[in-house]
């Protein structure tokens, strides 16, 4: 690690979204708490953050998202019942997910102005430190986790690091796309990026896929960032401005991405992760086969 590289300790999880792509399931349940196999999407995300060495997670929430804070707190009556019935294994699993003292903070995004605005809402809690951003409806099934892969690169090169994956050329207009300028293994030096380019204009097929490590100077940029694609304040636009002053490295991480904010993506995640489970895989395969 170079002396200029400040240690990565904090992460921002923007969880204020309404989850309209998976309605009606998200009418009263935050999309981040929808189950994948036997635990919520957000459980996988927090596990990934902790694996990467994150010590403080900042949730940017919205109205009707109080259940997220409750999930990482004690449920006294439930825990007492499990203990009384000798269900120690599930009790231990629940306790392992609890927030440690001072590990989690919650702040509100009062209006749905986009990802860039959500990140900006965490500025006072993050302070003058580098930080990660993890999209909380994207599970990456990888070993090690995607953020740990990015953090390892960040420890070597510093600057700003973003996770990318290849998508079909026909799909590039749906994503933020990086403009590469040279590659070494899975590391790509970036000269630009564009949010949802018009069909046929994308500079590559490398999509920005929901994992970022950013320097705190992004906050000053986001404060004055104009609305972009979709009429929202786009984090991609802010990063493009920061790129004129700081280095950006894209990392094509190893792992399978599951977009759990989409109905079919959520279904695929449930099937894929159930099949990988040592305790459930055989039964899951039999159940799926019986439906075909």
How would you describe what is shown here?
With 292 residues, the protein is α/β, with parallel strands linked by helices. Helices cover 33% and strands 24% of the residues. It has 11 helices and 13 strands. A 9-stranded mixed beta sheet has the order 5-4-1-6-11-8-12-10-9. It has a two-stranded antiparallel ribbon with strand order 2-3. A two-stranded antiparallel ribbon has the order 7-13. Strand 9 and strand 10 (187-195) form a beta hairpin. The protein is globular, with a radius of gyration of 19 Å. It starts with 9 loop residues before the first strand and ends with a helix.
Please give a handful of descriptors for the protein shown:
11 helices, single chain, two-stranded antiparallel sheet, globular
Based on CA inertia axes, which overall geometry fits?
Answer: globular
| Strand order, sheet with most strands | 5-4-1-6-11-8-12-10-9
Q: How far is the N terminus from the C terminus?
A: 52 Å
The low-confidence parts are: none
- Judged by helices, strands and strand pairing, the structural class is alpha/beta
Q: Strand percentage, roughly?
A: 15-25%
Write down how many β-strands occur, each being a DSSP E stretch of 2 or more residues.
13
Q: What's the multimeric state?
A: single chain
Strand/helix succession: EEEHEHHHEHHEEHEEEEHHEEHH
Rg on CA atoms, Å: 19 Å
Tell me roughly what share of residues is in helical segments: 25-40%
Mean pLDDT value: 92
Number of helices, where a helix is a run of at least 4 consecutive DSSP H or I residues: 11
Most strands sheet? 9 strands, mixed
């Amino acid at each position: 690690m170079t002396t200029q590289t400040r240690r990565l300790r904090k992460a921002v999880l923007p969880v204020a979204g309404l989850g309209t792509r998976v309605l009606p399931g998200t009418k009263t349940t935050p999309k981040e708490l929808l189950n994948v196999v036997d635990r919520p999407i957000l459980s996988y995300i927090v596990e990934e953050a902790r694996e990467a060495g994150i010590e403080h997670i900042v949730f940017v929430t919205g109205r009707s998202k109080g259940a997220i804070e409750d999930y990482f707190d004690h449920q006294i009556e439930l825990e007492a019942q499990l203990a009384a019935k000798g269900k120690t294994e599930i009790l231990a699993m629940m306790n392992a997910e609890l927030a440690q003292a001072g590990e989690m903070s919650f702040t509100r995004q009062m209006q749905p102005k986009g990802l860039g605005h959500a990140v900006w809402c965490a500025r006072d809690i993050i302070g003058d430190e580098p930080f990660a951003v993890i999209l909380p409806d994207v599970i990456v099934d990888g070993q090690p986790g995607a953020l740990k892969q990015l953090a390892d690169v960040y420890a070597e090169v510093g600057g700003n690091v973003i996770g990318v994956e290849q998508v079909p050329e026909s799909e590039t207009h749906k994503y933020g796309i990086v403009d590469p300028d040279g590659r070494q293994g899975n590391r790509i030096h970036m000269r630009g990026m564009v949010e949802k380019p018009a069909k046929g204009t994308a500079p590559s097929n490398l999509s920005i896929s929901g994992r970022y490590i950013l320097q705190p100077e992004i906050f000053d940029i986001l404060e004055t960032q104009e609305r972009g694609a979709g009429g929202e304040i786009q984090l991609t636009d802010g990063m493009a401005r920061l790129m004129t002053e700081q280095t950006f490295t894209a990392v094509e991480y190893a792992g399978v991405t599951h977009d759990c904010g989409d109905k079919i993506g959520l279904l695929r995640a449930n099937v894929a992760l159930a099949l990988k489970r040592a305790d459930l895989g055989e039964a899951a395969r039999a159940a799926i086969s019986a439906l075909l």
